[in-house]
Amino acid sequence: MMVVAIITMGAISYVIFNQLMQVMKDLPTYRATIHKKSLAIRSPHDSSLGRAAQNVKDLQKELTEATEPAPPLTAPGRTAPRLNTAANPLPVQMIESPPNAIAYLRGMVEPFLSPLATLAIVLVSTIFLLVEESDLRSRLFRLAGFDRIHLMTQALDDATFRVSRYLVLQFLVNSGFGILCGIGLYVIGVPYAALWGTIAALLRIIPYVGAFVAGLLPLLLSLAVFDGWMKPLLVLSLYSSLELVTGNFLEPWLYGSHTGISSLALLLTTVFWATLWGPAGMILSTPLTVCVVVLGRHVPHLSFLHILLGDESALEPPEQFYQRLLAMDDQEARTVVDTYRSQHATVELFDEVLIPALSMAEQDRHKGGIGFRA
Q1: Can you tell me whether residue 155 is helix, strand or coil?
Q2: CA–CA separation, 218 vs 324, rounded Å?
Q3: Distance from C-alpha of 145 to C-alpha of 141, rounded to nearest angstrom
Q4: Is the pLDDT of residue 333 over 80?
Q5: What does the H/E/C string look like for 47-95?
Q6: Would you say 17 and 25 are in contact if contact means Cβ atoms under 8 Å apart?
Q7: Mean per-residue pLDDT for 318-347?
Q8: What's the CA gap between 206 and 281, in Å, rounded?
Q9: Terminal-residue alpha carbon distance, the chain
């Protein structure tokens, strides 16, 4: 599996690299458009933006001149004393010697050494984890204790199922995102639409950030290819709207309902892991949170994690109804009753919601927690 994964990643990287090189070769053909856009970005005086910038500069110049001190007054027939000024220093410029071939090659390779070293460590560690999988599982069971083998088996099976389902869903969501981006760019007319769609699907493994990084290249290419500003704005709107819907609505709902994590907890834990570990934390945020929720579900001392992060309701209908009555919120208490009544019979409503709520009220009255007014 590792050999197949490495070959697949190498083939995809090779195709993307060749396509990017072809894009770089085609850039000189758009030199005139790039020059025109650069002039427009510099705010020429004939445009409204340029006139506004010039007005701001004129106003700043007038304010600067108004605050300058007035020259000293002198008596008639006398000239102001001359101030001794040092001679203008000669400009000095440090010119480095031209680098040799070894220094040039080192400068090109050095930025890639750290990511390549990290990738090598991950690959080697993964290979050894896969080879020693049975031994590691046995040691984990021994560490948990023989009296908890059934508990650890359930926890591992639960975590494996949830993480596997999350990875499948992530693959489907990212593939759909890349396909929609490629189709949208093809309709807009951006060259190499399939390439940008593939890059969007690959980079979107980084939540909330990868899509915008992937959209930067086609946006710059659209600025170089098209004369006006409408097509670049369409590219920006395409990526922004797709990421807005996918990242803030589709993914929290889809991942939360299939991994046992609430949508709000999914967003908050992404921020937490990203703050802790950076981009790697963003990529691993959902699998790590799934493991934490599974621990809270199966380990009694960590049950608070399952309560805080899980998608199951924290309060059952009797507790919800009683709590809303204590808060004097009869409207929401009626909503709880109506919601339960729409899915169950009236007898079940009395047996499973109203009578248990009255029982809790009676217990709190005996404890002195609540009282009744005369």
Answers
A1: helix
A2: 53
A3: 6
A4: yes
A5: CHHHHHHHHHHHHHHHHHHHHCCCCCCCCCCCCCCCCCCCCCCCCCCCC
A6: no
A7: 86
A8: 9
A9: 75
Give the pair of three-digit tokens for residue 218.
């086609």
Q: Which long-range contacts (CB under 8 A, 24 or more apart) does 261-265 make?
A: 261/286, 261/289, 261/290, 261/293, 261/309, 261/310, 261/311, 262/309, 262/310, 262/311, 265/289, 265/308, 265/309, 265/310
- Residue 177 confidence (pLDDT): 92
CA triplet 116, 169, 276: central angle to 5 degrees?
50
Q: Predicted confidence band at 374 (pLDDT cuts at 50, 70, 90)?
A: very low
Q: Which contiguous run of DSSP H or E holds residue 135?
A: helix 133-144
How far CA 51 is from CA of 35, 58, 168, 213, 253, in Å, comes to: 21, 10, 54, 33, 48
d(CA 238, CA 233): 8
362 or 111: whose pLDDT is higher? 362
Q: 277: exposed, middle or buried (C-beta count within 10 Å: 0-12, 13-18, 19+)?
A: middle
Residue 267's CB is within 10 A of a number of other CB atoms, namely 18
Cα separation, 265 vs 309, in Å, equals: 5
Question: Which letter, b or e, does each residue of 299-326 get, where b requires 16 or more Cβ atoms within 10 Å of its Cβ?
Answer: beeeeebbeebbbeeeeebbbbbbbbbe
**Contact by Cβ (8 Å): 17, 207:** no
pLDDT of residue 228: 76
Q: What value does the mean pLDDT take over residues 99-106?
A: 66
Q: How confident is the model at residue 107 (pLDDT cuts 50, 70, 90)?
A: confident
Length of the chain: 374
Q: H helices then E strands: how many in the chain?
A: 17, 0
Is 358 within 8 Å of 321 (Cβ atoms)? Answer: no
- What residues are paired with 310 via a beta bridge? 261
Continuous segment of H or E residues that includes residue 33: helix 31-41
pTM over 0.85, yes/no: no
Overall average pLDDT of the 294-318 stretch: 82
Average pLDDT over residues 111-118: 78
Contact 269, 289 (CB under 8 A): yes
